[in-house]
């Protein structure tokens, strides 16, 4: 719904659990909107169709889950290199391999650290509610277009399949740079080429510095996070997506007991809210990171906190029955407080 | 004085990087002439593939998107669906189309995407240095089939055009060659026919062009050209394998 409100009219996907609600919804909605839906022959074909549509300047998206995202990484790297905007939704599975379909955050490294070849970043957003999924999908398309970059929404089967109230709204008005790169047929004008091959002397280095400057700009301007009860906290709990929701319940329980605990939830994973961690840990020296894996985002937390801050980690790699409870997390909070 | 032969408007006035005796330049010209004759240059979006043909955008004065290896038909699908008023063609070699991109070509063809595919078959991977391709002939020596291709180990050369012609989504499929003036004229005719299908919105059109790679075949230009007309044309029969409008 967020994608449609954002003006996305081109969806290309392939069935994989636990994200089939998305292609099913799009296959129903797109024809009535003069849009296009294709169930592609493969994950690879789906993302390459997104590439084609994006090259014409259209808002296009695909969605998948871990193994499917692995297959799409080639094209995601291309699109980062070609500076093409698009949205990729990863409602991740637990892994590695075929793994399982339970809520998991094992794809953090893949999403945030490039995943594909060549050294690139894409914007990665981790919503923690249905409303945020809706809002951030619109925001994702805007960021993609402003920065000419692929954007990933990283969720799991908890945020991907839960039912919550949603207040739909119009997309915010945003100024966008002219799409003077989009293919249209020359129409008698200058030739336009969308490519990622740069063989001339110094050409590729210059291109990579340009991408680097874009990533720095994203880091300076576009990091988002949520803070809850952090002002007097002596322990900051952190986590993203569904883990952060469970963590928030634990923080609320701790507050009821009078414990001075707060929550810092990164909403964007790239750019990572380095600034928020740095300024909070200038005062509060204890951080407890909670993830549904054996420790991935914690590396970025350690790099972001003040030098004298302690970073503790509690994680559970998910499988059936492995989702931690708020009580379990409260126990961890007490341990480090 | 009247000028009777000139560079097609769809081609830029630059030298190509192709080896002596390579047919890419010739095939580029045929495609450009067809674009000119239909007045398509200004509404065309070309899809370049990986291989020697990747530099399409250096030679054609048209908008171009560069697809990952084998994915050109999927990229072209996205382009055409998002911009149905544009004229979209892919230009792919045999390694790109018939090996790593097999799934993409079959399914774009089967969906009857309104695009045109120019398939340049020279029985080898040119850009990477002459390795065995899916269309490498039996007995042909390449850098990865140094004893010659053996059917019991490497299978048989794939006849892509015949395979695609069997799909209901395909409107037009032909195999041509550019080894002789006669074949070259016919190749031009088939390329134009394929373009006509897309111009009229009649579905997926496909033209295979047999061509030479003298450098990687270890032959001079003349011998390589002769091989196209003899060995290649013997295994890969020329002709129109599907022409729905004529049915």
Give the SSE layout.
The complex is a heterodimer of chains A (337) and B (247).
Chain A: H1 2-5, E1 10-13, H2 21-29, E2 36-39, H3 43-55, E3 60-64, H4 66-82, E4 86-92, H5 108-112, E5 123-125, H6 130-147, E6 150-156, H7 157-161, E7 193-194, H8 203-221, E8 225-228, E9 235-238, H9 241-256, E10 261-266, E11 268-270, H10 274-281, E12 286-291, H11 297-304, E13 310-315, H12 326-336
Parallel strand pairs in A: 1-2, 1-3, 3-4, 4-6, 5-6, 9-10, 9-12, 12-13
Antiparallel strand pairs in A: 5-11, 8-10
Helix pairs in contact in A: 3-4, 9-12, 10-11
Chain B: H1 24-38, E1 44-48, H2 56-59, E2 63-66, H3 72-82, E3 87-93, H4 94-100, H5 102-110, E4 116-121, E5 124-125, E6 131-132, H6 151-154, H7 160-165, E7 170-177, H8 181-199, E8 204-210, H9 214-217, H10 221-235, E9 239-243
Helix pairs in contact in B: 1-8, 3-5, 4-5
**Overall pLDDT score of chain A:** 95
Taken as a percent bin, the fraction of beta residues of chain A is: 15-25%
Structural class of chain A: alpha/beta
Largest sheet of chain B: 7 strands, mixed
Number of strands of chain B: 9
* Global geometry of chain B: globular
Spatial strand arrangement across the major sheet of chain B: 2-1-3-4-8-7-9
Name of the CATH first level of chain B = Alpha Beta
Distance between the termini of chain A: 42 Å
Distance between the termini of chain B: 45 Å
Overall structural domain count of chain B: 1
Uncertain runs of chain A: none
Structure class of chain B: alpha/beta
The CATH topology of the largest domain in chain A: Rossmann fold
CATH superfamily label of the largest domain in chain A: Thiamin diphosphate (ThDP)-binding fold, Pyr/PP domains
At CATH level 2, the architecture of chain B is: 3-Layer(aba) Sandwich
């Amino acid at each position: 719904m967020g994608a449609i409100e954002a003006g996305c009219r081109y969806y290309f996907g392939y069935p994989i659990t636990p994200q089939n609600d998305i292609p099913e919804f799009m296959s129903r909605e797109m024809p009535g909107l003069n849009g296009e839906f294709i169930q592609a022959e493969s994950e690879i074909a789906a993302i390459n169709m997104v590439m084609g549509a994006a090259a014409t300047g259209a808002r296009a998206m695909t969605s998948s889950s871990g193994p499917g995202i692995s297959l799409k990484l080639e094209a995601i790297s291309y699109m980062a290199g070609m500076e093409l905007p698009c949205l990729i939704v990863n409602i991740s599975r637990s892994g590695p391999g075929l793994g399982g379909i339970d809520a998991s955050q094992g794809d953090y490294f893949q999403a945030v650290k490039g995943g594909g070849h060549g050294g690139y970043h894409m914007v990665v957003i981790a919503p923690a509610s249905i409303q945020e999924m809706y809002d951030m999908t619109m925001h994702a398309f805007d960021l993609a277009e402003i920065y000419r970059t692929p954007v990933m929404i990283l969720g799991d089967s908890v945020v991907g399949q839960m039912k919550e109230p949603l207040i739909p709204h119009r997309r915010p008005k945003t100024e966008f740079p002219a799409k003077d790169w989009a293919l249209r047929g020359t129409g008698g004008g200058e030739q336009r080429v969308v490519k990622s091959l740069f063989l001339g002397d110094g050409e590729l280095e210059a291109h990579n510095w340009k991408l680097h400057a874009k990533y720095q700009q994203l880091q300076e301007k576009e990091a988002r996070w949520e803070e809850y009860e952090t002002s007097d906290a002596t322990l900051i709990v952190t986590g993203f997506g569904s883990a952060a929701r469970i963590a928030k319940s634990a923080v609320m329980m701790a507050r009821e007991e009078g414990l001075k605990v707060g929550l810092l939830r990164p909403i964007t994973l790239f750019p990572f809210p380095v600034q928020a961690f740095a300024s909070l840990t200038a005062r509060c020296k204890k951080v407890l990171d909670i993830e549904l894996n054996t420790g991935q985002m914690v590396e970025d937390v350690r790099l972001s906190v003040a030098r004298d801050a302690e970073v503790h980690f509690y994680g559970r790699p998910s499988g059936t029955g492995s989702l931690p409870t708020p009580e379990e997390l409260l126990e961890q909070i007490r341990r480090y407080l | 004085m009247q000028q009777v032969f000139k560079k097609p408007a769809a081609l830029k006035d630059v030298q190509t990087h192709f080896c002596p005796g390579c047919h890419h330049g010739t095939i580029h010209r045929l495609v450009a002439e067809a674009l000119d004759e239909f007045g398509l240059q200004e509404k065309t979006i070309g899809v370049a593939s990986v291989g020697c043909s990747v530099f399409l955008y250096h030679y054609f004065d048209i908008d171009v998107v560069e697809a990952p290896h084998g994915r050109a038909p999927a990229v072209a699908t996205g382009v055409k669906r998002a911009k149905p008023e544009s004229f979209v063609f892919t230009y792919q070699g045999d390694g790109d189309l018939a090996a790593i991109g097999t799934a993409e070509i079959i399914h774009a063809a089967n969906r009857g995407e309104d695009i045109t595919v120019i398939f340049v078959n020279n029985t080898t991977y040119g850009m990477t240095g002459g390795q065995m391709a899916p269309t490498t002939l039996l007995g042909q020596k390449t850098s990865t089939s140094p004893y010659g291709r053996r059917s019991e180990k490497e299978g048989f050369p794939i006849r892509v055009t015949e395979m695609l012609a069997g799909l209901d989504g395909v409107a037009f499929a032909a195999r041509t060659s550019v080894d002789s003036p006669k074949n070259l004229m016919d190749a031009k005719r088939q390329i134009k026919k394929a373009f006509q299908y897309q111009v009229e919105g009649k579905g997926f059109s496909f033209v295979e062009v047999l061509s030479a790679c003298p450098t990687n075949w270890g032959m001079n230009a003349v011998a390589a050209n002769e091989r196209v007309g003899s060995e290649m044309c013997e295994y890969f029969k020329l002709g129109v394998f599907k022409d729905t409008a004529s049915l």
